[in-house]
């Protein structure tokens, strides 16, 4: 009988271990680098940024096309059921009841108030702006991915803290049950441990939901299929202190993309002013044309007429008309862009300084949280020894355990917050590292 029972228990354990092993084998993991690559491949912002570059390139080609001559062709044919021109004896004995006209004209703008050259420069500038914005889209995707990833790691690590505390309380509950069975304590001590354990189980349930939300947020942003068994490979509990290599904030704006956009806005405003001034200047064009006319039935001989021409257009009324006021509006917009650059420059420096202070505070938070964890661990050990020796009560032990759990949670949060703060600072100073993307990889 015992043999059959042993075999049955062994079989159950084997099935449990095998099933659990399969579960672990199927568990998927994702790293920060993989998350970034997936997001860079999936992001619609980046795709739109590339499309805007193509659009700007098309606009540049359009501006170049203005340098080329314009060619137009036309043809006209008329057939009348009665004579258009009645017969003229000796000169036109048969009259004319049909004729055709065909011509082609090529015109080249020699000078248009500088509008062609300015339009080309404006198109080139738009291409540069589109490329800068495309790089910003990439940096923004990398930043958001890092933030979402570390929030997932934080939830995972906090779950480990709760699991360790659960094990501790379950051990304490077993001890209280043994003491109660031996008649050494009152039942209310056992119930107090049960209450603390129930509170912890509720925290675990809430944290599980938070973790699933963080995972869903990451997967939706990166395009990775959502799977509740997926975990982030990075851990915090075994991490050492990060190296703080930012003794001073980097306030050099020369390579800052936002500052570059402000500079481009001034240049764009200047070109827009020049473009508007072109309406006040004369324009010159030259061209050639050729035409032929005759009749379909050869009622009269056709003739080919080549011709060259030049045109000069002087917008005299534009000097006091609405065109002049439009120029003034563009000049005012240019002054606004210059003022915006000054304000924007200050705001960029403030943003960099704030992100640097946030990063410095996050680093100090790790130091303080590490020290606090050591103190609460020692305090818990002392209270545990005192409780086992009968020198303190259960309340003091539970309070010490709660402080220790809170300290571990704060340390986990401190590490995750530091990673996020560092990403924000690197983003503000245009120093984020962007991984190479393998577009063939699918998740």
Automatic annotation (TrEMBL):
MF (Gene Ontology): efflux transmembrane transporter activity; porin activity
InterPro entries found in the cross-reference section: OMP_efflux, TolC-like
Compartments it resides in: Cell outer membrane
Gene3D superfamilies referenced in this protein's UniProt entry, alphabetically: Outer membrane efflux proteins (OEP)
KW Glycoprotein (keyword) present: no
Any matching Pfam family: OEP
Entry annotated with the keyword Zinc-finger: no
Family indicated by similarity: Belongs to the outer membrane factor (OMF) (TC 1.B.17) family.
Name of the protein in its database record: TolC family protein
Record organism: Flagellimonas aequoris
């Amino acid at each position: 009988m015992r043999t059959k029972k042993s075999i049955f228990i062994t079989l159950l354990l084997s099935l449990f271990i095998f099933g659990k092993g399969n579960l672990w084998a199927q568990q998927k993991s994702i790293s920060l680098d993989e998350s970034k690559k997936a997001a860079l491949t999936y992001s619609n912002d980046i795709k739109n940024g590339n499309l805007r570059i193509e659009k700007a390139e098309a606009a540049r080609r359009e501006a170049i096309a203005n340098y080329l001559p314009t060619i137009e062709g036309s043809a006209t044919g008329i057939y009348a059921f009665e004579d258009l021109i009645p017969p003229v004896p000796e000169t036109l004995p048969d009259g004319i009841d049909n004729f055709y006209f065909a011509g082609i004209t090529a015109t080249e703008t020699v000078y248009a108030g500088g509008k062609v050259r300015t339009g080309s420069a404006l198109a080139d500038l738009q291409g540069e702006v589109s490329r800068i914005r495309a790089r910003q889209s990439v940096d923004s995707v990398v930043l958001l991915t890092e933030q979402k990833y570390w929030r997932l790691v934080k939830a995972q690590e906090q779950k480990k803290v709760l699991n360790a505390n659960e094990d501790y309380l379950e051990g304490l509950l077993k001890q209280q049950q043994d003491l109660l069975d031996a008649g050494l304590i009152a039942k209310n001590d056992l119930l107090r441990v049960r209450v603390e354990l129930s509170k912890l189980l509720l925290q675990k349930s809430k944290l599980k939901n938070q973790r699933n939300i963080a995972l869903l947020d990451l997967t939706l942003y990166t395009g990775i299929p959502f799977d509740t068994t997926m975990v982030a490979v990075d851990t915090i509990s075994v991490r050492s202190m990060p190296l703080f290599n930012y003794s001073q904030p980097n306030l050099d704006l020369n390579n800052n993309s936002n500052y570059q956009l402000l500079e481009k806005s001034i240049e764009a405003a200047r070109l827009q002013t020049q473009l508007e001034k072109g309406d006040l200047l004369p324009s010159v064009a030259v061209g050639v044309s050729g035409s032929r006319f005759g009749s379909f039935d050869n009622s009269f001989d056709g003739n080919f007429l080549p011709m060259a021409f030049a045109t000069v257009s002087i917008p005299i009324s534009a000097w006091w008309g609405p065109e002049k006021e439009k120029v003034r509006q563009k000049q005012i917009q240019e002054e606004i862009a210059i003022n915006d650059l000054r304000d924007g420059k200050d705001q960029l420096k403030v943003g960099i300084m704030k992100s640097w202070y946030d990063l410095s505070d996050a680093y100090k938070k790790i130091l303080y949280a590490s020290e606090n964890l050591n103190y609460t661990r020692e305090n818990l050990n002392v209270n545990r020894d005192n409780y086992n020796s009968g020198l303190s009560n259960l309340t003091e032990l539970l309070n010490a355990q709660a402080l220790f759990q809170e300290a571990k949670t704060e340390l986990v949060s401190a590490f995750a917050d530091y990673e996020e703060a560092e990403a924000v600072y690197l983003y503000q100073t245009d120093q984020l590292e962007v991984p190479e993307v393998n577009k063939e990889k699918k998740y």
